[in-house]
Design brief:
The chain is mainly beta. It contains one helix and seven strands, in the order H-E-E-E-E-E-E-E. The protein has two domains: 1-33, no CATH class; 38-124, Immunoglobulin-like. The longest helix is centred in the first third of the chain and has 13 residues, at 2-14.
Length: 127
């Protein structure tokens, strides 16, 4: 009898007629709508090109207005070599010169409200 009850529960649960507590409903439950927080509706994206770079970069950001965006550039040892405030209302992009930095591998991170949301690699080939 107990095995029959468990099988009935599983059948009802898989069809959406039962809750995990074992209560059955005459109609299938409708899925709940998930409310999204306004800040989560548009994921910010950062484009840095060309990569590899000869010392001159173009930085483009898409995201929501009202957020605090920053670009952080670190060397291979993790030392910050550049911190730059970004604004998504600059559709043409921001030109950045890295002429004073030695050639090598760098990492650039997008910070939103001082939290890292993405990190990517940049190769710098200064002459």
């Amino acid at each position: 009898m107990r095995l029959f009850t468990i099988a009935l529960f599983l059948l009802g649960f898989l069809q959406g007629h039962a809750t995990p507590q074992g209560r059955y409903y005459g109609q299938a439950r409708q899925p709940l709508a998930v409310a999204r927080h306004p800040e989560q509706s548009i994921a910010p994206t950062l484009s840095v090109f060309p990569n590899p770079s000869q010392g001159q970069l173009t930085v483009q950001l898409t995201g929501q207005l009202g957020q605090d965006y920053k670009l952080r550039l670190t060397n291979i040892l993790g030392r910050e070599v550049l911190l730059l405030g970004l604004h998504p209302e600059q559709p043409a992009g921001l030109s950045v010169s890295l002429a004073g930095l030695p050639s090598g591998l760098y990492f650039y991170s997008l910070l939103v409200n001082d939290k890292v949301v993405s990190t990517k690699r940049l190769t710098l080939q200064n002459s």
